[in-house]
Amino acid sequence: MATTSSAVTDSNPYSYLNGDTAATAKKSSIEEAQDRFMQLLVAQLQTQDPLNPLDNAAVTSQMAQISTVQGIEKLNQSMSSLNEMYKSSQSVAAAALIGRIALASGSQMVLASGKAVAGVDLAKDADTVTINVNDATGKTVYTESLTNQKAGVLQFQWDGKDSNGNQLSDGAYSISVNAAQGGAAVEASPLAYSTIQAMSWDNGTPKLHLANGKETTVDAIRQLI
Prior knowledge:
alpha+beta, seven-stranded antiparallel β-sheet, elongated
């Protein structure tokens, strides 16, 4: 949260939103500037030339400007407090996801008992999508071609058989994706299912640690199980 010259004596963030003066031990810099402005204005009024008085419109404009600046500072304080509360709620939500299975960025896929599941994130509609399944050495063992796919998340299921119909052994595999629309390449990202094991913070942002060794944020998760 951005710091100000105010010394906070109340840890309740709603004090700022409610304008609670008890939460501020001394005046903010803008309030002090407003006090100095009013003192100078009173001094000007007291010492003005009666034959050439201050212009009323100019005085009113200056008072409106200082009030506007004060309002902006209070708005900034309120937004900072809302931002802190949002970050806290994000942390609570992220912690609640530990133990869940998430679909997030990643190419890993585990074949177990003849079944493996992964995903593809298409940035746009694609008339052709090619998904290659690769073994641990990087060799492509199976290719599946799809047509007329809509933008968004596409789930891919593999029965563990290679391109010749032979059943492959269980273990770790990976996928790579290519997509096109009208001959032009379409951005396509592989997605992997993995268990959320832990959470940490990166500059105040919750980071989720997955069982496949990847890290992700809450907003980058495309599906939860």
